[in-house]
């Protein structure tokens, strides 16, 4: 159903210092095989694991370079032990093309209103129920795509649409060239891990990310966004939505996450991208019926697919919570909570809301998502049940075959690394 009220719900916040210690799930401390382009923190972690520079360069050649080499980054590389020759090699990798291009060397733009392309599930993956859009949802996605066409045309920026299999990126050519490989990679990792309907992805007309390089782009984008949505008869929660949007550096309205990149380092940008993919997958696949804890938890799960630690949170524009004050690793926060006999139940965690969640709650929600997703087929079936409107706790009990007490015991064992 077409929404009559758009909630300015989200501001994604990177939580301070990014600990490099490896982690695959809340259950383990063992180093995980990292995926995605190599970051400075990956390099430091590899050195701590006694990898030599040839091995590190091999990693970078295989996975790509995940940061821009400027003067500050070059000093960091030199302090780690890279020679000038190696830095020059990295600069050569950085200059290599990273996205499909048209004549002139710019990434190809396409029509965001086009129906999504059909993609077969990964070979050998069990296939569940594919999503079939009802007429109302189809109309909603088509209307969203039409508004975004107008937004691109009226924003007075160089931003254009760059569709990927299941999501659409809006960015200028420079930003798109850097962001598209990660956006495609996250979707690939999701498809490799889960059967349908998760593997089948979401409809790119209703799952959009705008990466706005400067404050100028961001402000122009927001001015056009408010104007176009209000002209369509859609209402915002705030009395002055433009003022609220311009007071922060990232905003989510249903179907579109927009972020101002000015002042952010490369890894923070990439983490926001990875988190927002997972968050929007869970939002769309459940038709906005899934609990906040599973939306944020799945967002952090996709962040961990690309990085070693979860860090991203969702901050309501109407509350003031200092979520970044505690810099502990999330796996340690979770184990501490279980040591204090919290959570008291899975149902309690499922009732968390983004308007009131603390950092401990985000860590707990991520741990629950990791636990449930450790059984990919069951997790995909859970998504189907949530889309039907089934209560989350009821759906989990039905699919996983465990009553509340037994489920909490299994989750506890997962967190403690026991099977």
Described by the principal axes of the CA atoms, the overall outline is globular
Strand content: 5-15%
In the CATH scheme, what's the topology name of the largest domain?
Answer: Glutaredoxin
* Helical/strand content category: alpha/beta
Low-confidence stretches: 1-33, 95-130, 316-322
> Helix and strand string, N-terminal first?
EEHHHHHEEHEHEHEEHHEHHHHHH
The CATH class designation of the largest domain is Alpha Beta
CATH 2nd-level architecture of the largest domain: 3-Layer(aba) Sandwich
Radius of gyration: 21 Å
Mean pLDDT rating: 78
**Count of DSSP E strands?**
9
Question: What is the topology, as strand order, of the major beta sheet?
Answer: 3-4-5-8-7
Taking the sheet with the most strands, its summary is: 5 strands, mixed
Query: Can you count the helices?
Result: 16
Number of domains: 3
N-to-C span = 43 Å
Give the % helix: 40-55%
Care to give the gist of this entry?
This protein is α/β, with parallel strands linked by helices and 419 residues long.
Structure description:
- This protein has 3 domains: 56 residues, no CATH class; 145 residues, Glutaredoxin; 102 residues, no CATH class.
- The chain is 49% helix and 8% strand.
- The strands form 3 sheets. It has a 5-stranded mixed sheet. It has a two-stranded parallel sheet with strand order 1-6. It has a two-stranded antiparallel sheet with strand order 2-9.
- It has 419 residues and is of the alpha/beta class.
- The chain contains 16 helices and 9 strands.
- Strand 3 and strand 4 form a beta hairpin.
- The radius of gyration is 21 Å and the shape is globular.
């Amino acid at each position: 159903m077409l929404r009559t009220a758009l909630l300015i719900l989200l501001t994604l916040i990177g939580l301070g210092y990014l600990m490099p210690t490896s982690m695959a799930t809340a259950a383990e401390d063992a180093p995980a095989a990292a995926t995605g382009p190599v970051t400075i923190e990956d390099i430091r972690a590899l050195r701590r694991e006694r990898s030599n520079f040839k091995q590190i360069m091999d990693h970078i050649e295989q996975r790509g370079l995940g940061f821009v080499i400027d003067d500050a980054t070059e000093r960091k590389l030199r302090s780690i032990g890279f020679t000038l020759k190696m830095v020059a090699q990295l600069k050569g990798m950085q200059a290599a093309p990273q996205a499909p291009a048209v004549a002139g060397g710019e990434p190809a733009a396409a029509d965001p209103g086009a129906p999504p392309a059909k993609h077969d599930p990964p070979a050998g993956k069990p296939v569940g129920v594919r999503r079939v859009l009802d007429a109302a949802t189809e109309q909603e996605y088509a209307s969203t795509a039409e508004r975004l066409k107008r937004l691109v045309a009226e924003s007075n920026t160089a931003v254009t649409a760059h569709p990927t299999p299941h999501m659409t990126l809006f960015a200028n050519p420079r930003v798109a060239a850097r962001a598209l490989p990660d956006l495609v990679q996250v979707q690939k990792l999701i498809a490799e891990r889960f059967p349908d309907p998760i593997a089948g992805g979401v409809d790119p007309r209703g799952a959009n990310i705008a990466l706005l390089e400067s404050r100028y782009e961001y402000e122009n984008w927001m001015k056009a966004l408010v104007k176009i949505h209000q002209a369509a008869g859609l209402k915002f929660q705030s009395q002055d939505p433009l003022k609220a949007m311009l007071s922060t550096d990232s905003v989510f309205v249903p179907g579109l996450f927009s972020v101002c990149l000015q002042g952010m380092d490369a890894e923070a940008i990439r983490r926001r991208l990875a988190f927002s993919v997972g968050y929007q997958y869970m939002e769309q696949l459940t038709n906005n019926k899934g609990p906040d804890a599973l939306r944020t938890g799945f967002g952090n799960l996709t962040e961990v697919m690309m990085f070693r630690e979860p860090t991203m949170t969702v901050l309501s524009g109407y509350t003031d919570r200092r979520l970044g004050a505690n810099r502990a690793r999330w796996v340690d926060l979770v184990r501490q909570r279980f040591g204090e006999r919290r959570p008291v139940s899975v149902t309690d965690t499922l009732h968390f809301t983004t308007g009131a969640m603390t950092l401990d709650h985000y860590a707990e929600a991520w741990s629950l998502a990791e636990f449930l997703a450790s059984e990919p087929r069951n997790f995909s079936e859970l998504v189907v049940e949530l889309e039907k409107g089934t209560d989350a706790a009821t759906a989990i009990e039905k699919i996983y075959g465990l009553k509340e007490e037994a489920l909490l015991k299994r989750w506890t064992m997962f967190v403690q690394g026991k099977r």
